[in-house]
Amino acid sequence: MGGAAGGWGALKAVADAIRGQMSVKQDVIALFKVNQPQGFDCPGCAWPDPQHASSFEFCENGAKAVSWEATSKRTTPEFFAAHTVTELWERSALHLEGEGRLTHPMKYDAATDTYQPIEWETAFREIGEHLRSYDDPDSVEFYTSGRASNEAAFLWQLFAREYGTNNFPDCSNMCHEPTSVGLPESIGVGKGTVELEDFDHCDLVLCIGHNPGTNHPRMLGTLREVSKRGATIVAINPLRERGLERFTSPQSPIEMLSMSSTELASTYYKVRVGGDAAMLKGVMKILLTMHEEALSKGEPGVIDEAFITEHTEGFDALKADLESTDWEHILKVSGMAREEIQHIARLYASAERTIICYGMGITQHQYGTQNVQQIANLLLMRGNIGKPGAGICPLRGHSNVQGDRTVGITEIPPQSLLDGIERVFGFRPPQKHGHGAIEAIKAMRDGKAKALLCLGGNLAEAISDPQVTFPAMRNLDLVVHMATKLNRSHLLLGKHNYLLPVLGRTETDVQATGAQSVTVEDSMSMVHASRGSLDPASPHLKSEPALVASLAKATLPDSVVDWSAMAADYSRIRDAIEAVFPAFENFNERIKHPGGFRLYNAASERVWLTPSGRAQFKVMQGINEDPRSLKCHDLVLTTLRSHDQYNTTLYGLNDRYRGVTGRRDVLFINAEEAEKRQLRVGDRVDLMALDPDGNPTSRQMKNLTIVIIDMAPGSVGAYYPEANVMVPLDSHDTKSGIPAYKSIPISMKRVTDETRTTSSVLR
Ligand SMILES: Nc1nc2c(c(=O)[nH]1)N[C@H]1C(S)=C(S)[C@@H](COP(=O)(O)OP(=O)(O)OC[C@H]3O[C@@H](n4cnc5c(=O)[nH]c(N)nc54)[C@H](O)[C@@H]3O)O[C@H]1N2
Ligand SMILES: Nc1nc2c(c(=O)[nH]1)N[C@H]1C(S)=C(S)[C@@H](COP(=O)(O)OP(=O)(O)OC[C@H]3O[C@@H](n4cnc5c(=O)[nH]c(N)nc54)[C@H](O)[C@@H]3O)O[C@H]1N2
Ligand SMILES: [Mo]
Asked: What residue intervals traverse the membrane (predicted)?
């Protein structure tokens, strides 16, 4: 611990990761082409690239993601022949993916309990036959993880819709769904409104509930520039995250050599887990008071009344809600002092241009959608949307999770999408809403779902409640995974199981008309091309678009879509995307421009695509983000990513900035809370999840080791995905359905020698 984020430590960490996973020659070529005009899009995160970057933007975790994919290790048919699925199930996530890239299409053989190689054509034919045998297309679930390119995702949704369903559970349901649901109601678009350039002009950046040092490391470069320019950065997070405090830039030789670093957040506030809405309401309440006081002294007010009158609706209702919220309640739920909230309000009131960035700390709550809307309220109060240097900035997760939504991966299809598909392809897609991730698991649990097809990801481990999810998946008739590496989802067997290997971003993709590029959309609506340069991990791999097209052809013999033509030439897929979505006008031309192009974002232009044509202040009932845990009590558990992980992919067992090495079986807690319970570093505890009445349930995490960390009172943290055993399937946002991964009421018990059991978490 102790040092700044980035710097030499980051370089060493990359070197360590690379040594284990790939040969040096390839890595140099690969890394230098990441996020370059001619290179491939970094699979690490969705932070945009500076438009005119001529040199390679270094990022430790991007380099890890690339080396993980470009590894020389292989999970071959020989490997599968040597290990039964029962045996593999006992292995950790680290060891499953650690075997390297999948090389052959495989089918599960129950007699030997192993995956066996299968010819591609046989696999397609069999899967097609299974899919045609089901009476109800809504008994099939089409899952998408956010690495899929626009081209793959577009074909995927087209296939599912021609097959007859809108069942699109996807990783977005577990990630930024509150943004996709909340922001359209507030500002008429379900995306962020800022561009990278806005960071050159802002006076204030509020970073709420995200951890860029680990999850969006390239953002630190941007924050560093903001800080050097003298603008203010405020972090609001239950945990003091090293990466948000200071940063040594690997791009800056001077900082590297002098071992100095740039201070990032000038102020760091530790909000209680689940206390953001209370904090935001507190800030807005103070703004109201400041405004009245200023006006009474004849000074200009701090609320932008002209903007509110011209552009918005609902301000009076918001005001009434804020006035009726009492301070005692705000301070209790936020865990912050009134002076701290006042300080944030003053900084905000004196900044001409403010950007608010947020991540999973805001979205993954029972009121995640309302949380997002409180952020929009705060920005709208001072006209901070739709002007340079200001706006809302949700940090998307997977590198193309936003693009997948844009090109049609949604269980709630808008009319324009359905009309577009009918206009272009001549078939009428189903209108009925389909399943999101939670609904899909419930359909499997209840025996209503027959088949699950996954375009990437690791749904079983990513979603809440493995106690329900694992057996639910074993109920299926057909399971098809398209993946780069082996993970636990692939070992949850239905009756018929196929594991199909795909090309990764880093690899060349050659189809009938030659080498292909795909496209992705970053967090700021920039769409650009991505072209791999490494040799494929195996000659038997298929690209995702080609694989989806083959599945569609095998399933829909009377299809009206020319799948072969699109798979042979991805520019034909882009033509189709453009025809369905007018925002992609001139698509193939515009991606030739280095850096790509920005999709039209109405809210950025102060055009509000809400029913009334105005931005909406949205009132949230109460201030507790997790109303079902209102009765609680002392401790709320949040779930976190370590520095050595990419979602359910574990690169290793270290969490460098938080000072954890070699293990994941830890519980983060602050010194005072530990002391209250007479716990010291290294002591062991069992956690019990509480029901809404505060009674312990059978959901437990056993034998976690105490790690003392600078963290808000009443808050504790453990790692995702292990902590998902603590989250019931029905604990989710009432509006968007996102699992409430980030506020789990718990109690804990010290482990003594008599009560000690083995931890299920890696150590
Ligand atoms: N290296 C790496 N990069 C990644 C990923 C990865 O796993 N590894 N995952 C990708 C994906 S899919 C996503 S969605 C993003 C995730 O990126 P983040 O949004 O940064 O994700 P998390 O690590 O889940 O949590 C973020 C922060 O929320 C804080 N937090 C927890 N509970 C609360 C709360 O109640 N309130 C507030 N204000 N804060 C809280 C935690 O302390 C933590 O610092 O990153 C993407 N990039
Ligand atoms: N408790 C808790 N749970 C959470 C979260 C949390 O913060 N806390 N975060 C949630 C979030 S934000 C998300 S996004 C989800 C993540 O959910 P997912 O997106 O489903 O999960 P990943 O772990 O990203 O998926 C990893 C797998 O993707 C496959 N893969 C990798 N690259 C490719 C590729 O290029 N193509 C294909 N076809 N496959 C590929 C590999 O086989 C790898 O094993 O988890 C959610 N779950
Ligand atoms: Mo995510």
From this structure: none
- What is the position in ligand 2's atom list of the atom closest to the CA of 727? 1
Q: Does domain 177-394 have CATH number 3.40.228.10?
A: yes
Q: Is the CB of 334 under 6 A from ligand 1?
A: no
Q: What is residue 246's three-state secondary structure?
A: strand
Question: For 30-88, how does the pLDDT look when each residue is reduced to its tens digit (9 = 90+)?
Answer: 565 666 656 788 887 888 876 644 344 557 788 788 888 888 899 999 999 999 999 99
Q: What is the identity of the amino acid at 438?
A: I
| Peptide bond between residue 739 and the one before it cis (omega within 30 degrees of 0) | no
- In DSSP terms, 144 is beta-bridged to 170, 455
Sheet holding 246-248, edge to edge: 5-6, 246-248, 262-263
The distance from CA 577 to its chain's CA centroid, rounded to whole angstroms, is 24
**Is domain 74-111+119-173+400-501+535-569 annotated with CATH 2.30.30.220?**
no
Domain boundaries in the chain? 5-70, 74-111+119-173+400-501+535-569, 177-394, 636-755
| Whether the CB of 398 sits within 6 Å of ligand 1 | yes
Q: What is the pTM of this model?
A: 0.95
Contact 462, 647 (CB under 8 A): yes
CA gap 72, 103 in Å, rounded: 11
Closest ligand to the CA of 63: 1
Give the ligand with the smallest distance to the CA of 210. 1
142 lines ligand 1 (CB under 6 A): no
685: alpha, beta or left? (left if phi > 0; alpha if psi -120 to 50)? beta
User: Residues enclosing ligand 2, CB less than 6 A?
Assistant: 97, 145-147, 171, 174-175, 360, 364, 397-398, 455-459, 462, 482-485, 487, 502, 504-505, 544, 639, 647-649, 720-721, 723-724, 741
Distance CA 495, CA 444 (A): 13
Query: How far away, in angstroms, is 348 Cα from ligand 1 center?
Result: 24
* Residue closest by Cα to atom 40 of ligand 1: 361
What would the CATH number be for the domain defined by 636-755? Answer: 2.40.40.20
647-673 pLDDT, tens digit each = 999 999 999 889 999 999 999 999 999
Give the whole-angstrom CA distance, residue 212 versus residue 722: 22
CB of 61 sitting under 6 A from ligand 1: yes
DSSP one-letter code for 552? H
- Of the residues 647, 729, 738, 742, which should be mutated to test ligand 2's pocket, given the most ligand atoms within 8 Å of the CB? 647
